[in-house]
User: Fold this.
Amino acid sequence: MKNFNIFKAGLLLISLTLVNCAPTASQLKQAIEKDPSIVFVAIEKDPEKFFEVANKAAQDAQRRSQEKQAGDETKKREDEFANPVKPEIDESRVIFGNKSAPITIVEYSDFECPYCSRGYKTVKEVMSEYKDKVRVVFKHLPLDFHPQAMPAAKYFEAIGRQSPEKAAQFHDMVFENQKEFTAKGEAYLKDAAKKVGADMKKVEKDLKDESLMARINADMAEAQKYGFTGTPGFLINGVSLRGAYPAPEFKKIIDRHLSSMK
Assistant:
């Protein structure tokens, strides 16, 4: 994709040599189709300069795209502060932290995602700083290209039926040893479940329970409903944060919520 963007930028530069004023996209397309050698002649004439300028054009385009995306996210966030979204909170599921905390972070995550591993560390940092003021509802968004993510989500929910504390230990163990988990797959999940003291016969039974899969599917549907297509994604009292942002970004949203409660 990067090379393609550079190529497009290069074509734009070539267009300046075709006529006295820049041609339209249609004119440029017709000129290149008529004589493709135009592109190669320009590159051969000064390839180093060509790619230097083309690369800068591609970088500028990427920067403008990022700035627009950041602006759109800021506007969306302001809209959500005024009208927060309302994810379903089932108090019977595994919840990290103080269940009566004023701030609820709903996390949509994938156990195999490296960015989710980064998000895991950030959430730990946030919970350490805010203590009883924050709770985390861990929900699932296993991505198709992470084959071990769905089995891990199922193990987490199965263990959670026995003990939220054991499920929390399992959750931490998988994220802290993500490379080993990814390499070993379900063998690692079974071993981790044993290490946290889960009843393996009950785990195996619950893994086959349709209601367990129904919960995971509901999590995925909810994530898509709120526009989370990648992981991790967070809703902080109904205000979204998309991606593995550092703790200060969480702090901005949390502090604003807490300030409004005074």
Notes: Residues 2-82 form one domain. Residues 12 and 25 are 9 Å apart (CA to CA). The chain has two domains: 2-82, 95-261.
